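Weekly sync, protein design subgroup
Attendees: M.S., D.O., the rotation student, P.L. (late)

Item 1: inverse folding check
M.S. brought a backbone from last month's batch and wanted to see whether the design step gives back something sensible before we order anything. D.O. pointed out we never logged the input encoding, so this time it goes straight into the notes. Structure tokens as presented (396 positions):
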């Protein structure tokens, strides 16, 4: 029926009983020089204190565009910044993905943007990207575009990095599910209206395999209607039940109506406001579950990086759980992982232990390294999620 994989956290735990051996290969070990460690703390303070935001940054609604690596066309987007924005105060960021991506134009129409404005969250920065037939929300180009938009807005505006949400309507909801499965790290929550993860099938040229099990890492607010001829509520109900039974947090609303009307919006405004208010991203979750395919395009979630798979895209997964200063890694058909250690998340004055499939494979102090800090800050541009050390674990 579908190429969406239903395997979730609870199901995978049943596989994680084998005791596999492992070795540790960490070039950035406790032998790092004192000067490297000292420069780490200095640079950490700089990153957290040096960013300032212009008082005259634009308010109101305006447009922007850019290109992304590997693609030679422009990605257009619109931005709305409330007049109440104060550069001295952090503000939420909400991204809204429109439907109808089969068009040829690479610009978002006023009609589509006005539909999205109907569920715009007040007192937040709003961004309206554009997708079209050559750059649908589940294409590689959009995985780069949305990340670049977030980083662009953060350079000019004081965004609360732990309060970034992505919304979608119809095909845009399919895009929301795509990011929930492939690139959840920047987001606090996912909001999907009258769409379906089932659109993320290989026949639609989806970049990377979509694993519903990855939905468990972040909260999802999903609305589908009873008489929708494209994505009826009954078509997604079983999937969301499976995600929640595996430890996920999908708030699913089955509402009367069809695909094009929005009679459900007014009754759900309070629930949506509660969802947004109640979900702030934890940049260092203690438990992570990640499935990848053998392409390895999306190998990271927060502080866990997965390297290589064995046995195909339906049987490769990792559970990483932090307890105190120890990390317990359970894996199936995965060659190696890298754990990104933050001085905010671990006590780096004490030994850090790593257990791989019930075997102790690392037990020592680490030294913070400015090279690691710079590497991941350059990639993430995220001042609330910074890393001091990498521990690489080979799984044999």
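Designed sequence read out in the meeting:
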């Amino acid at each position: 029926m579908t190429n969406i994989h239903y395997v979730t956290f609870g199901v995978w735990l049943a596989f994680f009983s084998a005791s596999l051996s492992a070795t540790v290969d960490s070039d950035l070990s406790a032998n790092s020089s004192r000067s490297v460690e000292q420069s780490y703390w200095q640079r950490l303070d700089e990153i957290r204190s040096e960013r300032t935001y212009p008082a005259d940054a634009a308010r109101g609604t305006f447009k922007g565009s850019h290109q992304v690596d590997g693609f030679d066309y422009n990605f257009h987007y619109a931005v709305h910044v409330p007049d109440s924005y104060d550069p001295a105060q952090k503000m939420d960021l909400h991204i809204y993905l429109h439907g109808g991506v089969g068009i040829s134009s690479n610009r978002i129409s006023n009609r589509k943007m006005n539909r999205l404005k109907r569920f715009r969250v007040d007192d937040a920065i709003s961004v309206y990207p554009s997708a079209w037939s050559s750059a649908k929300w589940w294409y590689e180009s959009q995985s780069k575009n949305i990340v670049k938009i977030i980083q662009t807005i953060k350079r000019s505006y004081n965004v609360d990095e732990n309060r970034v949400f992505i919304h979608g309507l119809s095909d845009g909801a399919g895009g929301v599910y795509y990011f929930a499965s492939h690139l959840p790290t920047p987001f606090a929550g996912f909001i999907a209206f009258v769409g379906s993860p089932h659109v993320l099938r290989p026949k639609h040229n989806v970049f990377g395999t979509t694993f519903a099990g990855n939905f468990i890492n972040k909260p999802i607010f999903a609305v589908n209607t009873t008489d929708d001829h494209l994505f009826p509520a009954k078509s997604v109900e079983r999937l969301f039940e499976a995600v929640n039974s595996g430890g996920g947090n999908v708030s699913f609303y089955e509402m009367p109506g069809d695909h094009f009307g929005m009679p459900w919006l007014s009754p759900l405004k309070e629930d949506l406001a509660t969802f947004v208010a109640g979900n702030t991203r934890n940049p260092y979750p203690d438990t992570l579950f990640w499935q990848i395919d053998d392409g390895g395009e999306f190998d990271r979630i927060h502080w866990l990086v997965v390297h290589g798979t064995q046995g195909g895209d339906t049987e490769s997964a990792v559970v990483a759980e932090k307890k105190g200063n120890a990390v317990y890694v359970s894996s199936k058909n995965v060659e190696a992982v890298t754990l990104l250690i933050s001085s905010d998340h671990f006590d780096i004055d004490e030994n850090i232990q790593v257990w791989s499939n019930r075997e102790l494979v690392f037990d020592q102090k680490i030294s913070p390294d400015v090279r690691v800090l710079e590497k991941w800050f350059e990639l993430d541009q995220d001042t609330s999620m910074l890393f001091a050390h990498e521990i690489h674990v080979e799984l044999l």
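Discussion: The longest strand covers residues 159-169. Helices lie at 9-13, 34-50, 110-117, 140-156, 171-182, 233-245, 265-277, 370-380.
Action: P.L. to compare against the previous round before Friday.
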